[in-house]
Amino acid sequence: MKMDLAILSRGQPRLQAQLHQLEAHIAASLRSLRAIIHDLRPEALDHGLRNAIESQVTQFSRLSGIACRLHADQRVYNAAPGAKVDAALFRVLQESLSNIARHANATQVEIALCRQPSSLTLTVTDNGIGLPARPPRRGNGLAGIADRVARAGGQFHVASRPGQGTALSMSFPLELAPHQGEHVLPEAK
Are 68 and 108 in contact, with CB atoms under 8 Å apart? Predict the structure, then answer.
């Protein structure tokens, strides 16, 4: 639609103002649609975090031809981290693997999932070309990952050297259940 509008605006100068307004409405609609899609819970999580992650890793290897190994602490799956962290974790894994397939020229990827008492850590490491020596400009992929991790209350770190691959580390806080015997007061309204 945006391309059709651009073509029309070149051919009809007197319609340019109306066409530019229509183009602005389309752009706003696209931004809204992307925001809605960005926040949707991934369908893959309907079968649990473990199945979603393992399926994503298998699919990535099959489609990209890049060897991918998953190292997951069993405790990661024993108690679900929560819907918000599940969705953020799965989406950043998807985006990380997508970035590797498009930009890294990697032949191997290592994924590590570890659970501590109050956090869940995801590390995605590749043996690709790494990021340039100058600080990364954080294109849409890295910026999107950083934003998603921050919205889940987590922290994001990038380590890379030219020719030596890249490691993305994300840490997500987990909501802890109250200890037995503790009384939790309801929130004030």
Answer: yes
Let me know: does 100 contact 126? Beta carbons within 8 Å: yes
DSSP string, 1-49: -HHHHHHHHHH-GGGHHHHHHHHHHHHHHHHHHHHHHHHSPPGGGGG-H
First vs last C-alpha separation in the chain? 47
Q: What is the pTM of this model?
A: 0.70
70 and 58 in contact (C-beta within 8 Å)?
no
Structure tokens at 3: 């391309």
CA distance 81 to 121: 11
Tell me, rounded to whole angstroms, the distance of Cα 27 from its chain centroid: 23
Residue 101, both tokens: 């397939």
State the DSSP H helix or E strand holding residue 80, giving kind and residue range, or none if neither. none
pLDDT tens digits along 147-187: 989 998 999 999 998 899 999 999 999 875 444 333 334 44
